Amino acid sequence: MKRKREYDEDDVRVRATRSSRPRTRTRPTHSDAVTGFVVAVDRGRYTCVVAGDRKGETFEVTAMRARELGRKSVVVGDEVALVGDVSGDVGSLARIVRIEERRSVLRRTADDDENTAEGRIERVVVANADQLVIVSALADPPPREGFIDRCLVAAYAADIEPLLCLTKADLGGPEQVVSYYSELDLDYVLCRPDSDLAELRERLSGRVSVLVGHSGVGKSTLVNRLIPGTGRAVGVVSAIGKGRHTSTSAVALRLPDRKESWIIDTPGVRSFGLALVSSDDLLHGFPDLVEGTVDCPPNCEHTGGECVLDAWVGQGRADARRLASFRRLLASRAGDADPGQTST
Question: What is the pTM of this model?
Answer without folding.
Answer: 0.81
